[in-house]
Amino acid sequence: MSRVSAIVYTSATGFTARYAGLLAEQTGLPLFRLEEADALAPGAPVLYLGWLHAGSVRGLKRALRRFRVEGTCAVGMAPEVDADKLRRDNGLGQAPLFYLRGGYAPDRVRGLDRVLMAGMKRHLAGKSDPQSQAALAAMRQGADWVSADQLGPVLAWLGS
Ligand SMILES: Cc1cc2nc3c(=O)[nH]c(=O)nc-3n(C[C@H](O)[C@H](O)[C@H](O)COP(=O)(O)O)c2cc1C
Description:
Blueprint: E1 6-9, H1 15-27, E2 31-33, E3 45-53, E4 56-57, H2 60-66, E5 68-76, H3 83-89, E6 97-101, E7 103-104, H4 111-125, H5 130-141, E8 143-144, H6 152-159
Parallel strand pairs: 1-2, 1-3, 3-5, 5-6
Antiparallel strand pairs: 3-4, 7-8
Helix pairs in contact: 4-5
The structure holds flavin mononucleotide.
Flavin mononucleotide binds near residues 16, 55, 104 and 113.
């Protein structure tokens, strides 16, 4: 028995999609992109995964309007995040939130996001601390931190 009836996600460059796929594989739960989740009944209990965009979980507001989001996974490139702040900033109250480190695929970032990240790279290039330098290197060369290991807490929560 699971707390949710489906996994719903939003992904721009593929990292969140991979985590969502791994979770579906391991749980047997049906998997939907948010844009294609019409088959799901409104108010259905779901686990939602979205990628982090300037501190907000992409697609979460829309998911919250349509479904009962029982738990949320935020996928970003930061090594770790302040989960309480993330919960507050995304209007999640005390609801379960999991952070998963995804990656960065510079070639797949498009449009306005590309412009935003060019500004971020300029900003980071002026900094010398190791965290900024590591983030800059990932943005320039790309990085992939997706690992099934990170899903332990999510799977434990889903199964309990
Ligand atoms: C415009 C933009 C803003 C981002 N903001 C954040 C952020 O606030 N925190 C973070 O950890 N990662 C941030 N990222 C990195 C993405 O969340 C990361 O690349 C994620 O793995 C993308 O998931 P996806 O491949 O499913 O789209 C940002 C990326 C872009 C392009």
